[in-house]
Structures
1.
Amino acid sequence: MPSPEPLQEIASLREQLEAWNHQYYVLDAPTVPDAEYDRCMQRLLQLEQQYPQAWRADSPSQRVGGQPLQQFGQVTHEMPMLSLENAFSAEDMQHFNRRLLDRLGEDAGPLEFACEPKLDGIAVSLLYRNGELERGATRGDGTTGEDITHNVRTIRSIPLRLRGEHFPAVLEVRGEIYMPKAGFEQLNNRARERGEKTFVNPRNAAAGSLRQLDARITAERPLQMCCYGVGLVEGGQLPGRHAEVLARLHDWGFRINPESAVVQGVEACDTYFDALAVRRNSLPYDIDGVVFKVNDLALQQRLGFVSRAPRWAIARKFPAQEEMTRLLDVEFQVGRTGAITPVARLEPVFVGGVTVSNATLHNSDEIVRLGVHIGDTVIVRRAGDVIPQIVSVVLDRRPSDALPIEFPDKCPVCRSAVEREPGEAVWRCMGGLVCAAQQKAAIKHFASRRAMDIDGLGDKLVEQLVDAGLVENVAGLYALSKEQLLALERMGEKSADNLLSALQHSKATTLPRFIFALGIREVGEATALNLARHFGNWPALAAASEAQLLQVADVGPVVADHLRQFFDSEASMRVVQSLQDAGVHWPDIERLPQQELPLVDQVWVVTGKLDALSRDEAKAHLQALGAKVAGSVSANTTCLVAGPGAGSKLAKASELGIEVIDEQALLQLLATHGINP
């Protein structure tokens, strides 16, 4: 018999996992990241294997999900919807492949695998009888799910009637319902505008949308469905390979993932996984890994199942993008526009491939929404290059000495008053140039690579210059002397000469760069370029009325108001004049009538990752040539610019026969028309 200690740990793990299952699947209120759940499940599996005497049929290790919600009718699946074994490394994949070959015989290898991104959504079953949708159900606990027919009928990527012919009399299609990233952001933005609760992540949003009793609410949510296989099949025959089955489903009207592929051997699986991991964050939807399946259905039959998973498939997980840690303190930073941003200081935690010790809390409204206290255990999310953020609080771990976060009523740097403009979520310091934090941030922005590109003027040097009182605004940079620089800490003669040379070199710039460098609120690179190309010169821009500014592409009432506030400010215009007096100059831009622009009346779409320029820059350049830049591909699209990770837009463009070019071809096109980013 095992000792009491392992038995107690097993019992504790089972209890904890069951509680999390209930929160995740029944209440739609997950309290821990997937990584924490996976660790506990792996530990339980390890202990149950080590102590088989402790095995129980009702253990969470023998389950797939949680209990279905009671508000919906229940559906018993004709064939169980099982979960998948997880792999976390290339070594795990080698072990998986070895188990397959041991069961099939060495002469079966190298095996052919179907590779599919593991969408982070809700698994569903769709039953078609004689080509018509009869029933939709969630996976539930794998045996019994929830009847969500009235909701799945509202999802446009789910066919109500199968297309084509030769489909089985009874066909059960299985897939994942998910919410694309863009739709998720729009949904949360609308919720914020209405003062409603936002969703933590797209998966949570998809689950909440599917479990609406009123299908009209579901119909308003941007849900998609991507199929990954079949269950029950009667009165017909399907192809003998998994990838061929997916292709047949596509013919019958279902969405399949364009990233799917077939590879030979487990090493090729690793290559596919690594390549997709690089592009993960540029995909238009969340994925948490890759599913690998033996492609030959006859071999799948031979391999069979274990109690809770097929032997012929495995899900290799990406490193967790959510983790738990403790909030140690909150500091308040002041940006170049005076915006006060709360920054959480965290107990360091490894998440999304890096160690995270800071996370943004955005603004005072977000602090209230989260209900977060100093000392709380929090869930931190990091996706790609996005600044880590706190997405929720684990309330049942709140310590007794946790302290509420108090937003400052004075600027933490200069002690000036803070104000919040109507309709804004951000509090701002009213100190302006009196505030050292704003001075420093404005100068750092002015000197940055995409602005004036002043080589050698790093953040620490800017801090020194402002603290020493040598520079009060950006114009003061061009008045610096070698003697003043040499008096600074760690500034040698060569460094001083190099900086003065870089300042002199930066005086020759372009109008778009200069506009962007001024740091006018809401005026980024793309808007600066549009303004420069529309007005052609600085006097025309500075004299433009709000009505004239609104004629510029991507300039709305808010941006126009910020521009006019800047131009109407005597202090701001004195700085501009001082810069010009110091020798900062740029050539005017030739303005062409709209009808003479080379891409007029054309519709372009930009997708995927670009290296030489940002998507906003590409958009601005195309608009400057007369093109309309759309967010989605349609029959009206003239051309698609596709970088790595183009995904569904590239697939649709290919389907519609639309011209597709890469970034290099775009740069060549721009150069042809005198644009050299």
Note: Residues 65-69 have pLDDT under 50 and may be disordered.
2.
Amino acid sequence: MTTDFEQEYQKFKEIILDNNPNSDIDLIKKAYFFAEVNHRGQKRNSGEDYFIHPIAVATTLSNMKLDDQTICAGLMHDVLEDTEVSYDEMKEIFGEEITFLVDGVTKLKNLNYSSREEKQAENIRKMVMAMSNDVRVVLIKLADRLHNMRTLEYKTREKQVQTATETIEIYVPLAHRLGIYSIKWELEDLCFRYQEPQKYYELAEMVSQKRREREAYINEIIETLKDSLNGSNIDYEISGRPKSLYSIYKKMMRNNIVFEEIYDLTAVRVLVDTIAECYEVLGKVHSLWKPIPNRIKDYIGQPKPNGYRSLHTTVFGEDSRPFEVQIRTRQMHKECEYGVAAHWRYKENKTKESEFDDAMEFLRRIMEWQREGGADEDSKAFMETLKTDFFSREIYVYSPAGEIYSLPIGSCAIDFAYKVHTEVGNSCIGAKVNGSIVPITQNLKTGDVVEILTSKNSQGPSRDWLNIVKSNQAKNKIKQFFKKNGKEENIELGKNQIIKDIKKHRSAYKSLLKEEWLDEISNELGFPTQDEMYASVGYGKLTSEQVIQKLIKREKELEKKDKDLSNPVEFINKESTSTTSNSSKGEVRVSDFGEGIEVKFARCCTPVPGDQIIGFITKGNGISVHTKSCPNIIKTHAPERLIDVYWQNESTDKFMVKIQILCANSPSVIYDITKMISSVDVNIAGMNARLNDSVDGIIDLTVEVNDTKQLDDVIAKLKSISSVHSVYRVNN
């Protein structure tokens, strides 16, 4: 399926100019065709030309009324990642600003990650860092993720679940934090569709069945409210807004109710021009229907930290059926739909700075976290902090001065103290909530007014606080205090903690605490000395279990080496005892030993005639033969057990060798490989094929060869295949 991108450009141009008649259309056209040319030939999983995707991303950004530079970056957001264009090239053509935005959403490449989770964390870390400098980075990423979710049907089921999970954990909370509800709600429903397809479609069917009844009921409400407002001078718009399937599902789960028990499937929304008119409409609504106590929410007087402003009230309608009315100005509605994106032009025009700054509070908090050590956290800790402190459900509490603070659910006064300022937390000795003294460990709830009692004579936080606070930011600030104060104490605490926890694994712990192992582990974890590592455990940045698992890993590696050296594959001396294998695989002569010595090839390096070899005298199992470059030989702790051995094989002898092939994900690649190998008269004894994270192919082959010369010939032939990237011999 080929797309006429000249024709598509005309449609795209109309959208751009409709959203912003003053757009720099020449710049956007330049970015459009630059990206199209560089993506040419690339296809999506659907079979469509790849450039369809960047056009969709840029269209979403244009509909959000974002600037020309952002739209250009949206068109080119995959160019640095998926084409040969370099950062410097793009910078030369489009300048620093656009290139920074593109680079901000470009995934990290050519790095070795231990897991998919680590790769995900580091790419999100890069985005967050870039977002801290320019919010437009995350706006592009949200538009990108939205289109990917809209077209997720073409991915495998496994990939669908992975993508949906990442979206609901990271990108939905991001959209919420930035107040971009139009994207948030759509992403939530799409995630629900792929995470719980059966429940999604069942609920969709139930909602559809009640649609006519619901629409008739809402229309009655709207007409009643219109009759009341027509006598006023208010310029209003009234509409019904159906609730998203995901929000209905969440309500059913949260309240443990069935679908039939949910009445407020639709909210009524009223848009007016001024704040005064918002409150006037609220009065009229309450004069028509009885309000439900404690269900009136004034987000105009007290906006949410993400900048959301609106009046919400839930009232009883006919037959005591509740429904929600949302009242806001038209400007508030625009900000609700597009959040921080709606504020972007205010920043450009240098107007309404305070409103824009309020919308930026979330980003300021992220920047503060980065400065205070967030940038140095490992991948797991980084994601945990992001999800707990920034993306989790939250409560809103107030200072005595009326300032609003958001905290993770379950937070206590200590969390609040550290949220206000590090020194307030370090000097905290007590707290008042709503005017009454309470334990500092008492959980806070939305609406609480919290006052922190401090003292200059405070000795600082207690180590027990680390197990009490909910927010990772509070934990990090407490850890920093102990890091700066009492290093010697931290070293001793760390040592004792490691020994204590090792004893949970075994009583004889000293065999694990080898000095050379501890030195190696300290360096691996980024500490110059053992003491620094112990201190880190002492003040809580590093867990004792992280150290212990590395010690146990080294012990297992040592045991495996000893086993590999003592347990070779098979006997190969033709004149050995009757236990020798009948099918000879070649012969090795052992220096200074008579005939009849049991000789075996080692599994770890599988020597082949032509390799330089050496023997290892095992304990009771004869001699194992290794290549001289075998890591087990190089690192042996028993060099006195090494002995010279020599090849004495015949031309007909065959040897098993493992090779690994990295290749393109092509339907013909296996046929090409097997055909090439058969042409050199080499037998394939085993094959395993799989895909890696970058969707390249990995093929593990076990072949039978006479010697290294024939092996080199096989490898050279395989490298000549166009779809093969690299071939190399494998040592276990």
Note: Residues 487-559 form one domain.
